Amino acid sequence: MTSAVAPARTILVVDDNAGLVDLLQRNLTRLGYVAACATNAVDAIAKLDQLRPDLALLDLNLKDRGFEAIGEAIANRGRAVPCVLLAEHGSEARVAELMQHGVLDYLMKDAAILDLLPAVIRKALGSVERRRRLQESEFNLGQLRRNYELLLNAVGEGLCGLDLEGRITFVNAAGLRMLGYDAGELMGQDLSILADRPAAGERGMKQNVSSDTTFRCQDQFFWRKDGTSFPIEYTSTPVREGGRQVGSVFVFRDLSKRRELEDQVRQWQKLEAVGRLAGGIAHDFNNLLTVITGYNDLLRANPSLDEKGRGMTREIHDAAGRATTLTRQLLAFGQKQSLQPRTLRLARFLNQIKPHLVQALGEGISVDLDILSDIREIHADPRQLEQVFVNLASYAGESMRSGGRLIIVAENVTLRGHSSNRPPNLSPGEFVCVSVSDTGPGLPEDLLRQVFDPFLTSNDGKRGYGLGLATVYGIVLQSGGHIEASSVEGAGTTFRLFFPAKLTGMTPHGVDLSDVAGEETVLLVEPDSALRSLNVRILQGLGYRVLDAVDIAEAERLFRVAGRDVEVVVAYSPAQSAIDFIDRLRKTRSDLPAIIVATEGSPAELNGHSALARIDYPYSPEQLVYALRDLLDGVASAIR
User: If you average pLDDT over residues 271-288, what whole number do you get?
Assistant: First the structure.
């Protein structure tokens, strides 16, 4: 292979002595350089612009314009030309001064000039090359530093660089956002300014981050610039250079959202347990009430009963009626009612019950409805749904006794699998969200956390909320929806109700599913022929290739034929058999992602499998598509 030959270096000789210029030009050419010449400053500047030489031999004292004039003209063009001076004896002091300001070398105009020329040129060009490499190195280092900063600032977790004393040397963008500081305010500060101080005898954060081993902690608080705090978990890892520790890197994550979700889950679990208990008690209590009212009716029919006795039986009858209402509320809270759901046009429904809401609110309170014209239909029991909104209106009326407004807003929403806004008890899909807001005084945080508890009472004990909101909670959940509350003291309370949108055909009220399209091959196991046919049509319409099976035996035959072409499995089968089916397939394909369509009583181990998602039966095709896309995108992201 022929090696590349470096291009010859170009050298410009500038001197008003034409004989010297010609002599130097011929010798430079003999040494292998490309030589150009000029005998005045105007010509020199033009050739410097045109040729951009690697080196210039410049006369220190040109007659028309001096060396400094040429240098200034070139500098004004935004670049510099390395140069060697051509000087005469007697100007040594000036030459020395100019070499302090960037001139590379000099040649005296005497008999030794040609002897010294090769060495001076090589030395000057070597200096030029070293400068160029240094500049490139500094540029590359700066670019590398910028790239690292971009990468670190793209990380979603807070990241601090620390020296051995625990002083902050770097904070990425996510960390600054969490803490509310500018970078300059934290540089050089001790990390302890952000952290809770340890109690006596406890190991402090500064000791942890200066440790020569990786340290993890999940129970720490950081303080923001504005004086508020938030919970974090952090990992401190030592940074070593040449075998010794020179600092540490501190990675922290804001746990506020996680703690909030954990509190919500605990509250839902508590309400679910209380609801089951309440539902069971209500059934037994109903049986007792039936006996009580039955014997009371017999007493009332007894002709020998005097008026005083009849008055007592009327009191018993009225009390039993109130108790019956209470049991109905308990059954609603425990999600044990018998519902008669049907398709509802929400805008029409809310307008129909508006007079009932006005009546429940009382005087001086208006009702404002803000409902999108294209709001989707829902599937719910209208009688129970009316009770939901009347109970919410009654609660709002109690909090706005001096007047106010009740605002009801309904909108279509899409809940995605990886969204932080999706309630954890709802599958991804299309929903109708109804927000019911009042302009009352709001609730303090401790009461807000318990707002759906049965028989909730205000802190001062003067106000009881009864079973109204607990009943709302039970009806919404039994209807397949979700309810959550938010409040700001002095600014009212808002209840957000989510109901699954009713899907009709392949295009549920104009819902655009293009964002969940794909090209993967899906093995679908669904025994219901109508639902299987609908799922196949929707998946194929979105670009998926579908292998459908009526049962697991047929699915196993298809899998043996299709082999590696199958990219995801969707399996509906009672209880354990679907899990066993996936486990058998994973003996061949350990990384095979799968969705289990679960029924009531399906084992808890469903949630423990990797690359495994779960949706509950009955499910909508839209829920399936979103769960499918979320699972495939999550697996692809993990592989990357």
Answer: 59
